[in-house]
Amino acid sequence: MNRTMLALVSIAALSAPVFAADAAPQSAFGGFVPLIVIFVIFYFLLIRPQQKRAKEHTALLNALKKDDKIITNGGLYGVITTVRGDILEVKIAENVKVEISRQGVATVITAKAEEKAVTPEIIK
After folding, report:
1. Helix, coil or strand: residue 2
2. Domain boundaries in the chain?
3. Is-contact 71 77, C-beta < 8 A?
4. Looking at beta carbons, which pairs linking 64-71 to residues 24 or more positions away fall under 8 Å?
């Protein structure tokens, strides 16, 4: 991604008007064209994907339910045992349950991911 962005910024910089001593003056809008091109590139490469990921994570948090296998932001693996509004009770070991905020969930472990990864016994 860095090489692509560098190439696009280089193209935008090269497309900027080159001023020579005998060149005719350009319009005020012509000087802003490279800045506009760079902003459009940043929007499609950085801002838009980040907004999409944020919406997906919000949808994931709203869809949490009992018996979902999760990984917290702190790296703990667990199984949701109770959902009370924004508070989740998560079983992280035998006879060990903790309460965490819904915002503390990093991801939900799917069956596909569970097959590939080595997960603790409490999750299996």
Report:
1. helix
2. 2-62, 69-116
3. yes
4. 64/88, 64/102, 64/105, 64/108, 68/108, 69/108, 69/109, 69/114, 69/119, 69/123, 70/105, 70/106, 70/107, 70/108, 70/109, 71/105, 71/106, 71/107, 71/109
Dist CA 75 CA 120 (whole Å): 12
Q: Cα(88)–Cα(60) distance, rounded to whole angstroms?
A: 14
Q: What is the largest CA-CA distance in the chain?
A: 82
For 90, what's the count of Cα atoms within 13 Å in the CB-facing half-sphere?
Answer: 24
pLDDT value of residue 121? 62
Residue that is written with structure tokens 């035998």 in the block: 94
pLDDT per residue as tens digits for the range 89-107: 999 999 999 999 999 999 9
The count of other CB atoms within 10 Å of the CB of residue 109 is 17
Q: For residue range 9-49, list pLDDT tens digits in order.
A: 566 555 555 554 445 556 777 788 889 999 999 999 999 99
- What contacts 24, CB < 8 A, 6 or more positions away? none
H runs (alpha helix) in 43-110: 48-62
